[in-house]
Design a protein that fits this description.
alpha/beta, 6 helices, disordered C terminus
Length: 194
């Protein structure tokens, strides 16, 4: 189930805006897609620094060589109190999966600038959701997801159905919505999302 997408920014399980709730959806014990096993109750994460709200992995996907977007995201997310691991540009799927297994982040943010985010995002989220240890890991995608910009509602629904927790296309209001989502991501909610 997805929240309203009049602005092209959608979070899976997002409440109706008229309800006034801003809580993130909880993954809880929901079975993972592709028949993956549920996440273990405790994961071995790289400890975050004292006072950190948690660790976020920021990454591009295999065909995307842009880095400025990743640096911007890193600075933005750090400013909001999270530790950030920036994997950089042209990240192979296997590397992303391995880093997620090793670091057990609280959130993964995938960014696309080259316009192939939709197609690559579907492949990457499939790999993440097939891994039993990562099946419940919160993952969002954003940026230029298609070559024409302003991703269609159908493509956004496809990405959410494939397993992304939120999709932020390249519309101007996406940055505000992304910051709002991070603001709602309290430690308690992060724990519930795992």
């Amino acid at each position: 189930m997805t929240g309203a997408a009049a602005d092209g920014i959608v979070e899976r399980g997002a409440p109706d805006a008229s309800q006034g709730s801003t809580a993130l959806p909880s993954h809880g014990p929901t079975p993972a897609p592709h028949g993956s096993a549920a996440l273990p109750a405790q994961r071995s994460a790289v400890p975050a620094r004292p006072g950190s709200r948690g660790t976020v992995i920021v990454s591009s996907m295999a065909s995307d060589a842009h880095t400025w977007n990743l640096v911007f995201l890193q600075l933005l997310i750090e400013e909001l109190g999270f530790d950030v691991v920036n994997l950089g540009a042209t990240v192979p799927d296997e590397m992303l999966i391995e880093e997620c297994r090793e670091r057990a982040p609280h959130l993964v943010v995938l960014s696309s600038v080259n316009g192939h985010g939709y197609h690559e995002g579907l492949r990457v989220i499939d790999g993440l959701r097939r891994d039993a240890a990562l099946a419940g890991l919160p993952v969002v995608i954003g940026g230029k997801l298609g070559i024409t910009g302003g991703e269609s509602a159908e493509h956004i629904d496809d990405l959410l159905s494939a397993g992304f927790d939120a999709v932020f296309d390249d519309r101007p209001e996406a940055a505000t919505a992304f910051v709002g989502m991070l603001g709602r991501l309290s430690g308690r909610q992060v724990h519930e999302l795992r």
